[in-house]
Structures are given as structure tokens and as C-alpha cells.
Amino acid sequence: MKVLKFGGSSVGHPDRIRGIVEILKGYYATGDHFTVVFSAFGGVTDQLIEMSELAEQGDDRYGQLFDAFSERHQTAITTLLGETALYRETSQQMRRSHEVLKNLLYGIFLVREASPRTMDYVLSFGERSSAYIISQALQQAGVPTEFLDARRIIKTDKTFGNAKVNFEKSYQKIKQHYVEHPKVQVVTGFIASAKGGLTTTLGRGGSDYTASLLAAGLKASAIEIWTDVNGVLTADPRRVKKAFTIPTMTYAEAMEMSHFGAKVIYPPTLMPALQQRIPLYIKNTFAPEFEGTKVSEDSNPEGAAVRGISSINNVALCTVSGTGMFGVPGIAARIFGALAQAGINIILITQGSSEHAISFAVQPAVAEDARLAVEAAFAFEIERGVVNTVKVERELCVVAIIGENMRYQPGISGRLFRALGQNGINAVAIAQGSSELNVSVVIAKEDETKALNALHESFFLSDHKTLHLFIVGVGLIGGTLLQQIQKQNEYLRERRGMEVKVVGLANSKKMLFDAEGIDLADWKDQLRQADTAIDLAVFVGRMRDLNLSNSIFVDNTADKKIATFYEHILDESISISTPNKIATSSGYLQYQRLKRIAEKRGVQFRYETNVGAGLPVISTLRDLIDSGDRITKIEGVLSGSLSYIFNTFDGSRPFAAVVREAKEKGFTEPDPRIDLSGKDVARKILILARETGVALDAEQVTIDSFLPQEASEAADVSAFFTVLEERAAYFEQLLQQAQQEEKVLRMIATLEGEIATIGIQAVGRDNPFFTLSGSDNMIVFTTDRYSVRPLVVRGPGAGAEVTAAGVFAEIIQIGTLS
Ligand SMILES: NC(=O)C1=CN([C@@H]2O[C@H](COP(=O)(O)OP(=O)(O)OC[C@H]3O[C@@H](n4cnc5c(N)ncnc54)[C@H](O)[C@@H]3O)[C@@H](O)[C@H]2O)C=CC1
Ligand SMILES: N[C@@H](CC=O)C(=O)O
Ligand code: NA
After folding, report:
1. Does domain 618-798 fall into CATH 3.30.360.10?
2. Which atom of ligand 1 is nearest to the CA of 667?
3. Strand (E) positions, 681-735?
4. N or C: which end of the chain has fewer CB within 10 A?
5. Hey, which of 470, 471, 476, 717 would you mutate to test ligand 1's pocket, going by the most ligand atoms within 8 Å of its Cβ?
């Protein structure tokens, strides 16, 4: 024998009931014995409460609600039974029953009173109507059924609203009834009766309770709870989009999950069945073929350590502290005694072993009462200053990981706190029961969704991670990056288990957000049509408010302003990847501060493309230093555009034309004067110096400019090109001089000790920089270990594809680390 229960919205509408009839027909066809429990049609219990309240207040609008109630059931009968004899019988029977309810409501209206006893009777009409109608529909579908009013078999005391079951008597009646009634019994959930035939109800989760009592009384082989979701999920799917069904879990785990508000089952009411170890299946009426969740006592120590993640979304944390608490027995008893006396339920308790403070979480609504109760209990100590007044912190929530197997696996808490820490979520209080069934952490309420997602990703989807990108600047590099992401997303998803979503995008005019990810196929149109003007402060505010896990800010501009927001962004625990050199090459103190904040917040501040574009220059330098090498000299051709210009300028075209070409090819900075003046190279050698630990500032880099003075002083880019054109002969002369000596021109940067210099040099065949071509960069590291033959990094050091790819790779690295 199996006990099935259908409830909530799965009995909300005749169409859905038809689905249930189909499921039950299937059961009947297999020849298995079963009985089925129904709760009232979705929303009906609340409507009955509302009618009674109106009637009690003398408000005759209760009549309209009653009419709607009656109509709803008649419509269900018509829809389910059509024009048949059974329809007429059912409809009439229902009218007779509802007439009683109508009179009852009128009685309440007259005496202006709805006692708990009366209310239980009123509420019984919900289950009695639904179970009766469905039993008739099943009969019509060929399943021989009988409607069973559970008041006949479940006996309770007279605690109306939440009656206590007389198990012995109920089990006996259940057994007897089922022996005498071989047809499929269609049972009303939630209701029972007390001595004298008085109607009672079973309290929260009442219909589950009915099913559980039947299962225990009948020694059933299984209970199936049919609802409107795919079993118990790893997390609340409204908050965690990637939550999935937990295929098996233990009773204890199911109880923990439900305590935290996974509303699928209400285990306290399932106790009778659980005590007899009857397995429980949670299934979806809308997807009957789906396996759902099996809850049983089988635990599998080999299985996943964490089964589910849950939260309580609003708590207040009260802390009692003071010097008078250390080593004094009875303090905890007094605190919790006072709270018990005030009728306050405690959600979580923590005390550090210094015994200096005890914290407990309660519902915010009772926090003030809790404070008063404890302060009254400790009035004497508070007056003497040995116990402090109670500190109440609000706007908090509790997130918890749940699983029986946690106790077998070390490292679970480490993972928990790493996931929270990397997302900038501060743990206010921590509690873990010694059963290790759950680890609970109190955090800020605003971080709840982010925390749930971060934890879910960390424990269930370690091979499935979503990165949330906020990209500012969609020029050459930014635009190419978006193209690369769009092209590579499928590979990353399938091969690396990584989803890269661009959730914020801005150019110099507009900004655009979509937490689900902006469609990269037409980001240009979307940005053009966006109605929000770019405002960086607002952009940063939105990043914070969206509060998404694994958020990364990508600055693809050359703008100074944006760099001023970096500190704030890192402080919000958002990582940064940028090709923009402004932040790293401005004041040394700011550079240091950014690194410190990133470290403090456990996020990444990365800028590999600042030097050598996509070439691994900064990472190589870091590897050398981290592994204990000492840098003695760095020499390099660090400008892609100058490299290209000198490799291309052969006298056949004017110098200005070659510079223009370098700009068109995307090698120069948005303002090419920055490259030609040596400023860009100066920034790069400065960054390398800083990475080696030399605290240089820009003024300390000596630049030996090769530009004629008028070019250096040109007011804007167009004036600059005019000067380059006018001074064509000057550049030709530079070239000829080099050519006469069979040399080539190179802009070379050098760092030796604390001295950084930059200058143009004519180099011959014996010089390693001689052979460079295209936009090549070449960085030569001389170190203690690489002293005779230095370590060399060489390759294209500018250009859209290689630079964007460098940024993209860095984004993936950040994602892998987080
Ligand atoms: N082009 C290259 O080969 C390399 C470039 N970089 C760096 O990459 C960055 C971007 O360079 P490109 O893409 O070549 O320049 P770009 O001029 O093509 O793109 C920059 C974009 O940023 C936008 N922008 C400027 N200020 C903005 C603001 N406040 N808000 C929103 N958008 C803003 C501009 O409108 C422009 O579309 C620069 O910092 C550059 O130094 C780094 C390595 C190599
Ligand atoms: N404009 C730069 C691009 C890379 O940072 C260069 O020419 O090297
Ligand atoms: Na690089």
C-alpha cells in the first residue's frame, strides 16, 4: 500500500486535477494498492478564513466570497464531470454541503464570533469539497473510489486549530476502515475529529500529517507527496537559478532543509511515518515522469557532503557580553530562561570559548522583546557594569549548508568561508551543531542571494561557474573583447564549465544592464537604444546593488576618471581586469593602495595587458620574483606602435603616413602623442619597476624624446600630425643616419637598480632588438638565475586581437581563482 498526497497549487485548477486523475489512473492500472489524500483547492483555506473574518466583523460581503467559493467548486464539477448522471449527483451533494457552510457563516455573522472550534468546522469544507469532487472525477475515469472524510478515522484532543492526535485510536480506526473498504479511498487532508464528533484540524502541514498518519497506520511501503516543484532542490530556485533536484536525502537532511524554509515538506508532521522508516518521495504533478526526491534513512557516506543550501531571510542578532560572564556557570541558562519565559523562539546561538559574549538570532519582530527580557534578567549585573546592555543588530539573514556527510569530510567550512570571502561577504556570526548536519552563518541581509549563489556554485557547480562582467569602454579593445567572448562562450561552457555573462556595458554615452546577461549578438544596437546616459558613479552603484557573485569590472578605456573608481570597486569585492594603464602608472601610493584593498577583499586587481599587451610579461616577472629570483636588469622594446613605425618607416613614405597607419591598425593609444612622446613606454617601464618592488613615480623615469619640440607641444592630435608632416625631413634624416651605419631605430626602455630610462637608439645586427618585426615587443629579464643568457619574452605587443585576448584570458583566470 502506498499513500499519495496532492496539495497546494497542484489542486489549484480543474485542468491540473485532470492531470492528477491521469496519474492516478496510471497507478490503478498497475494494480498497486494506494490511497490518496487531498488538501483543499489552492487558496481555498485562505478564502474560508477571510469569509469567517468578514462575517465575524458583521460585514455582509462575506456572502460574495461564499458565492465565489461555491461557484468555483461547481465549475470544477462541470469541467471534470460534464453532463452526466454523476455530475448531477455530485453537484447536488456539493450544494447541500455548501448550504450548511452558508448557514454556518450566517451564524457567525449573527453572533459576531468565530471561535477556534467554529473555525475548524468552517475550514473542513475546503478539504471535504476537494476530496469529494476528485473522488467523483476518479470514478468517472474508471477508478473505483470512495470518498473518505478523515474525521471518521483520525481522532484528536480538542486543541482546535492544532489538535493533538490520539495515535493508538487513530491507527486502529485506520486499519479497520481499510480492511472493510477495498476501493481506493480518497481522503480529506488536514481534518480530524475529537470526542463527540467535533471537527478539529491538524495545524501547519496538516495534509502531509494526514498522509503520514495513514502510512503509519497502514504500514505503507511509501508515501508520495505530489506538489508543484521537482522535489527538494539544492537551493531556493527563485534565488538560485541553477538549483537542481536533490535525488536522495535522509530524513534528517530533509528536516534541516525544511526548517530553513524549503516549503516542499513539513517533516514534523511526517514523524509517524518516519519513525517506521517509510520512504518518502516528493514528486511534481506537472512532470510526473520526473524522479523527484527520495527521502529515506539511507545515508551514503560516499555521497556529496553538502546536500542543500538554505537561508532564513530576515533575522536580528542579539549579543550579550561583559566581563562578568567569564567562567560563571548559569549565564546561558539565565539568558535562555528569560527568553523562554518571554515566549521568544531562538533561531541560532553562538558563544566563543572566551565566554565573553553570547549571541543569538531571533525574528526581527521579537528582537526588542528579547533585549528587554535579557536586560531585565541581568539588571543587577548591568547596573554594576559587569554585563553590557544587549546589542541588537538588524538587517541580517542566515545562510546554511546542510548535509549529513559533512562530518566525514574536512575542508567544508574552509570552502564555505572562501566562497563567502571571495565575494566580499562578511560572516557576522557562525554556528555549527556538533552533529555537523548544518553550518549556519549570519550575514548581511542584502548579501543573501549573492551568498546562496556563491555557495551553490562552490559546493554543487565547482565545474560550472558564472562570471558576471561589467565592461566600460567598447572601442577597439572592448569591442574585440565582446566579439571574442561571444565566439568562445560555448567552448567555455562545455569544456571549462564556465559561463561568461556581460551584465553591464557602457560606452562614452550610454550604459546598459541585464542581470541575465546582455545578448552579445546585438550589443551595439542595444547600447544605442539604451535610455540611460553613462554616469560612472551610477554604473558602480548598479554593480554593487546587483550584488552578483564572481563580478568582474573591465575598464577598456584610456580614461583617467575611471581609474578613480577602482578603489571603490575593489572595496565592493569586485575584481578588476584592465588594459588601461592610468591606475597602475599614476601615483605610487594609489598603486599600492589598490593592491592592498584587493588583497584585503580577497579579489583580483589584474592588468597584464598594461605591458606587452597579450604577452605574458607581468606574470613572468611575478613568477620570477615569487620563486625567489632577483631581477638585476630589465630591457625592452615596450611599444607596439613605435616598433611597427620603425619597422615600417623605410623612407618610401613620409613618417607621418606610417604613424597614421599604425593608428589605423589599432597599435597606438587613442591619442598617438602618448606613444610617440615615449609616455606610453614610460608608463610601462614604471609598472615593471613597481612590480619588481621599486617605488618609482612617473617623474623619476628619464625620457629622451626623439620628437622635435613642436611635435611634443602640439595642442591636439591633428596639430600633431601637421607637425609630423612638416618635419618629414627630420625623421628621414634620423632614418638615413641609422641606415648608413646598417642599424635600425628602436625605442628602448631600461630598468637597472632604481634607474629607469627611455630613449631611441640605433642598433646593429649584434643587438637582440635588431631582428624585431611588425609590432613586436621584446622584454629581456636579466636575473640572478638568468644571468648569462637572459629570459626573453617576445611577440606582437599591440593590436586589437592580441590585447583583447590578453584581457579575456585574465578574466578567465580571475574566474578560475574565485
Ligand atoms: N590598442 C592596443 O593595442 C592596446 C591598448 N591598450 C589599452 O586599452 C585601452 C583601450 O584602447 P583602445 O580600445 O585601443 O582605445 P579606443 O579609443 O578604441 O577605445 C576606448 C573606448 O573607451 C571609450 N571611453 C572613453 N572614456 C569613457 C568613459 N568615461 N566611459 C565609457 N567609455 C569611455 C571611448 O569612447 C572609446 O570607445 C587603452 O587604455 C589602451 O592603453 C593596452 C594594450 C594594447
Ligand atoms: N599603444 C600601445 C598599445 C599597448 O599598450 C603600444 O603601442 O604599445
Ligand atoms: Na602583457
Report:
1. yes
2. 3
3. 701-704
4. N
5. 476
